[in-house]
Specification:
Number of domains of chain A: 1
Largest interface: A-B, 48 and 43 residues
Shape of chain B: globular
Order of helices and strands of chain B: HHHHHHEEEEEHH
Oligomer: heterodimer
Number of helices of chain B: 8
Distance between the termini of chain A: 45 Å
Structural class of chain A: mainly alpha
Largest sheet of chain B: 5 strands, antiparallel
Strand content of chain B: 15-25%
Order of helices and strands of chain A: HHHHHHHEEHHHHH
Strand order of the largest sheet of chain A: 1-2
CATH superfamily of chain B: Tgt2/MlaC
Radius of gyration of chain B: 18 Å
Number of helices of chain A: 12
Chain lengths: 230, 205
């Protein structure tokens, strides 16, 4: 049954050479299913995430939002550094761990990015999906995941691996009764990220004729940039 | 997390196809100087009390026509559909696309007020275009963004593409337009009409 559903969700393979070339290049064989999931995600984004993010941006003081953003970036630093080691980038890992130590202490648990404020290195960002990419694993076909949005099998594996390997979350969940802290972190990370990109995503949506295809392109290019970045 | 990367990841999308290192080129001349001048000029094209809307529109159109390879970009963004189109359809599309891009650049330039650009390096690309890497800062933010400018020499330097956060504008538009055309039987006049409608909507806003 699942196989039948999957087959029914596959895009029709064009027979003309030009159409086939585009089909191969975009590598989105599950496009009909992806577009359906995308429509649901979009509805939820428009009616839930965007209003909440706009409220957060409009009514929460910028200094507080910046502090929360810095705190979340700092919490992510050990995970980023671990990935940088796996990617063969020890200098970046050392910089991010150094930032973590200094910002966690002098920056009051990371609410202030004292390292960057004093001309030090800015935070890097990476994840396990990018680590897999640097190792040479192919991304595979484009996927749109319910609630999570654009992805591919490589990044999906990265998301699953992240859930099990995040050092800060691992430490928190070792203590009984602190699961709420992990959930709160996840919630604020979603809110912070969506707020950061309110304008950029709205612009893409407004200026594209096929928002699905435009976002697919932007997602893939950004992931590729994350892999080839030195 | 991925959304953050969507806009944050930067710079090296084009790196795999790059050949000559930037240090081999005198950046006081040529594409780097062209981009530095262009970027600074763009930051000054902002709404002004002393400039009427019509004059500003004329200024923008002149700026885009002079500095951007609009015929080349128009051709690129519809890919294989360009060769299938009639001459009249190509002309109509090129015209609508140029007007659409003028509007788009106008909005982008508005957001550049106070920004400054620093040229980092330039590299020759395989197909004889040159990519100029710049770093943009916009006070009061201390963070910088890297912006890549693909420059072609078509009887004078012109911009063929701009990449921000690792995202090529021309590539996004190509995939956007190709998807639209695929779903609409390759109807280029319809795409041209839709661009016009987007433009009207944008101006009305």
């Amino acid at each position: 049954m699942a196989l039948l559903l999957l087959l029914g969700s596959c895009a029709e393979v064009p027979t003309d050479p030009d159409g086939r070339a585009i089909y191969d290049r975009v590598n989105d064989p599950l496009e009909p299913m992806n577009r359906s999931v995308f429509a649901v995600n979009n509805f939820l984004d428009d009616n839930l995430m965007v209003p909440v993010a706009q409220f957060y941006r409009d009514f929460v003081p910028k200094s507080l939002r910046d502090g929360i953003h810095n705190f979340l970036v700092n919490l992510n630093a050990p995970f980023v550094a671990g990935n940088e080691i796996l990617q063969g980038r020890p200098a970046k890992a050392a910089a991010d761990l150094g930032r973590f130590v200094i910002n966690s202490t002098f920056g009051v648990a990371g609410f202030w990015d004292v390292v960057a404020d004093h001309g030090g290195p800015l935070a890097n960002d990476t994840d396990i999906g990018l680590t897999f990419g640097i190792w040479g694993l192919d991304a595979g076909p484009y996927l749109v995941l319910p609630l999570l949005g654009p992805s591919d099998p490589r990044d999906l594996a990265g998301v699953v691996a992240h859930i099990w390997s995040d050092p800060v979350n691992s430490v928190i969940t070792m203590q009984d009764g602190y699961r709420w802290a992990v959930d709160t972190r996840t919630g604020f990370t979603l809110l912070d990220t969506r707020t950061q990109y309110l304008d950029a995503i709205a612009n893409l949506q407004r200026t594209s004729l096929d928002y699905y295809a435009a976002l697919r392109s932007a997602y893939r290019q950004t992931r590729q940039a994350g892999i080839t970045k030195p | 997390m991925r959304r953050r990367l969507l806009v944050q990841g930067f710079v090296l999308l084009l790196a795999t196809s790059l050949g000559v290192p930037g240090g081999a080129v005198d950046m006081r001349l040529g594409p780097s100087a062209f981009v530095a001048d262009l970027a600074q000029h763009a930051t000054r094209i902002v709404p002004s009390a002393t400039l009427s809307a019509a004059d500003r529109q004329r200024q923008l159109e002149g700026f885009v026509d002079k500095n951007f390879d609009m015929p080349g970009i128009a051709r690129f963004v519809i890919g294989q559909y360009w060769n299938k189109a009639t001459v009249a359809d190509r002309l109509a599309f090129s015209d609508a696309f140029r007007n659409f891009m003028v509007q788009l650049y106008a909005e982008r330039f508005n957001g550049l007020s106070g920004a400054s650009f620093k040229v980092l390096e330039e590299r020759v690309d395989n197909d004889s275009s040159i990519v100029v890497y710049t770093e943009m800062t916009q006070p009061p933010s201390t963070k910088s963004f890297q912006v890549q400018w693909r420059v072609v020499d078509s009887g004078g330097y012109r911009i063929a593409d701009i990449s921000i956060a690792g995202i090529s504008m021309a590539q996004v538009q190509r995939e956007d337009f190709e998807a639209f055309l695929q779903q609409n039987g390759g109807d280029l006049p319809d795409l041209t009409r839709q661009l016009g409608a987007k433009l009207t909507l944008s101006v009305a806003e």
